[in-house]
Write the structure tokens for this entry.
Amino acid sequence: MQQAPKAHPPLPERVDIVEVGPRDGLQSEPEFVPTARKIELINDLVGAGIRHFEATSFVSPRAVPQLRDAKEVMRGVDRSTGAQFTTLVPNMKGAERAIEAGVDALVLFMSASESHNLKNVNCTRETSLERFREICAFAAQADVPVQGAIATAFGCPFEGEVPVAEVVRIAKAYHEMGMRVISLGDTTGMATPPLVQERCRALREAVPELEVTLHFHNTRGVGLVCAYTGLLEGITRFEASIGGLGGCPFVPRATGNISTEDLVYMLHECGVGTGIDLEHLLEAAQQTETLIGRTLPGQVMKAGSRLKTHSMDTVATANG
Ligand code: COA
Ligand code: ZN
């Protein structure tokens, strides 16, 4: 059988996928998803080979009622495979709850734009940074690693363009606090290939020690193109959500993340390994659709992978 040609530009041999569906995906779902179903979904994705999860958030249950069962989710998931479970944390109370629940790392999050930070976590960016310094000291005592997320890193729904200098400034502050892994969040799908290239290069120049993760939403249809641009820049860690579930409840017209199975499909077709079983993922995406009760945006889950052939009997012949 003829092998598919490999992508022309050199790409990383392997990347890590961080599944954020249980957090970013579910957080804006209006109907509460029972805790047992959340745990089943995560465990099924562990079975598909996913080794990194943003499992939930330790935020105010009044702000995000869907994730009020964060502790129970963390207690229920399969920890036997070495899969890593991180959770979002905005403040000290969240850090205490997350550490008590046994997370593998905290993900502290703030926005690159002031107005989104005010909307999302009800404080200024400087206050977020002050809180994070305290949390880093607290987490170090508990020997729990801390990662950082920067929301609205490619644009803000309230302010428009977000200067790259703001993203670099926050990334540097994170690095000074001891973080080694950060994520650039495209909260409202405003990233474009030139912006991805610019921000990856600026961070590599300013803080080369940081491992940069990319997090895209497919709001304007260019999510996978942005991920591919990241690959060309040598990024090897991407966040995505099963079925393309998702969206931030604190932005207008938010839509889903890039879908995990579409991203894995693209990566495998480009010869980039993920350690994930695509067929298993496609079944999980279909089950997630049943769980949520509506059609999800993922595309490969509808079409199947490209070499899935069909019986000729399944369609009529076009007689003239
Ligand atoms: N976990 C649980 N409860 C929390 C909490 C946390 N991490 N942080 C605060 N609370 C509770 C407080 O205990 C207090 O409860 P009480 O009124 O019963 O005493 C209440 O929330 C208000 O606390 P305060 O510190 O004044 O918070 P706030 O009202 O300024 O809200 C956040 C700040 C960060 C807690 C809130 O904006 C939030 O949870 N945002 C998360 C948004 C999000 O997840 N966005 C999606 C990700 S991009
Ligand atoms: Zn997001």
In short: The first helix runs from residue 21 to 25.
